[in-house]
Write a structure and sequence with these properties.
Layout: H1 2-7, H2 12-18, H3 28-51, H4 73-88, H5 93-105, H6 122-133, H7 135-143, H8 155-178, H9 189-200, H10 209-225, H11 229-240, H12 252-288, H13 294-302, H14 306-314, H15 319-335, H16 345-352, H17 357-366, H18 374-386, H19 396-408
Helix pairs in contact: 3-19, 4-8, 5-7, 6-8, 8-10, 12-17, 18-19
Length: 409
Amino acid sequence: MVPIATVGKPGFLHLMNTIDKRYNIPSRTYFSRIAIPQMYEHTRDRVMLELRDVEHFACTTDLWSKNAVKGDTRISRALGVCKKLVGHFPHSWKKKEALKKAQRELNLPEHGLITECPTRWGTKQQMMERILEQQRALSQVLSENRSTRHLVPSWQDIEVLESVNKALKPLQDFTDALSGEEYVSISYLLPVLSLLNTQTLAADEEDTELTCSIKTKVLGYMEAKYEDPATQTLLNIATFLDPRFKKDYIPKEQLEEISVRIKSEMKEAQPAVAISSSVGAAVSGAEAEPCQSATATSTKRMKKSLGSLLQTSVTSPSESSDHATIEAEFNSYILIPKIHSEQDPLAWWGIYKVNFPHLSKLAEKYLCVPATSTPSERLFSTSGNVVTCQRASLKPSKVDMLVFLSKNL
């Protein structure tokens, strides 16, 4: 350290010399007992302030499952071979270098193998796909040594992996799209389910028996998952309220029932719209009028002009006019062109909520629902990153603070 400080290069001694002698470096105790709790309290207050006026909240639900690849001995054996093969290379740098050399000789991408993560089903498919990609390089490296030849996948294992990968790979893109947190996803479910039934998971002449079996199981699972009438109604209304889709994916036999349900909820939402308008008018009037004495205000309240009486009669519509207003708003929404599939429906509703005040209220209610439970499940991954082998003595209260801060800062 002395030569570093002498020649003037950055080093520990040079750093210590630049720190003010009066400054006390915070200790671990300071961060644990003061800094983190203060930051937690401040962030929690901010989040509670944001949630104070929230009108709607949503619980999550799962879409995908690994049930389609469970219970089949062929798949279990092939996956076992994959796990052993993937687990062999991290323990030997010589094998890693040999794999890179084989990849270059065979003009294959110099990709590393992927390890399956139990909490993310997509990694199972990614592990299989990577082994299929590097099959020739892996066989070349493992066949050189008699002790590792048993790790080379057999042709039967390769056929199984190809069949499983062909069935599951298309689902990966849908899973990623439906697992987002920053955009509307619930209204995508009906379009995605329709696409899976008609194209992605439809029978193909080139499919193997195993691929067909997996596709059938996936479709059967999703059909059972969403056969509940309440769930169907939720998906239908959410899709209708998305200006990208509207009626396109709602079954014709259910369209009339859904229309009646939406109009009924629009009618229930009308008082909130009327109240908010009245409150806005009252606030505007209060800001426009100059301050007056209590006596003058009392006198003014006792007298009502003819205009105020007429205004009262106008803002209290009859049931028939209320029905006509809802019908007009509902029909107008249907008639206007749908927006592009890449546009943000929330941004659209932000612009057109003045034109569709009742429907915009329903959009706030339904479009906040996430399509999958991935956002909440990410908390488990965050917790795993906080509580590690090196930090196994953290108290539960401190873990809660750290996880909360990592997701809300």
